[in-house]
Request: fold
Amino acid sequence: MPLKLSALAASLAVAAFAAHAGEPHDPMTSFVDATVRGWLATPSVQAAIAASNAAHAGLSEAQLIKRDAAWRAEIGQTKTPTIDAILQSPVSGALRAHVADSGGRITEIILMDNRGMNVAVSDVTSDFWQGDEAKFQQTFPRGPAALHVSEVELDESSQIYQAQVSFTVTDAQGAPVGAVTIGLNAEAF
Reply:
């Protein structure tokens, strides 16, 4: 019986989110606006994005894909220098703390530079380059006000129905410098 109730609750959460999708003030985007945007204005986050932008500025798409392949090859391995460089950064630690403090609402955070490369992550992602995905393509290239909300889907690894809210990250002058994706537990909304 509890499994049926959980499935029913998940279905209702998905339906409720779908009913609000596209509305400018749906609960998920309102939560992200009120909670997350301020985190990204901190000097440490802005410095990490600027450093990543500088490090990746001269790379060709082939070189970006090569770095992405190195990340993917390390997943599940004992030695993970490419992943560790990102996952063990202070900003990634801060993102993990925000996930832990969210009361189960936030499932993951991916901070990207202006090329779609991971700057900091709350957990290991399946790839390093997000630049070929909607979470990046529908945000950073579209300017400072861009917002992308994914469909609610079952995350196989966590068995949680979640949506991703992504938006362009700006500097203190309002210029686009990167993007961020916030995974949200749909059942919490």
Summary: Confidence is low (pLDDT under 50) at residues 1-25.
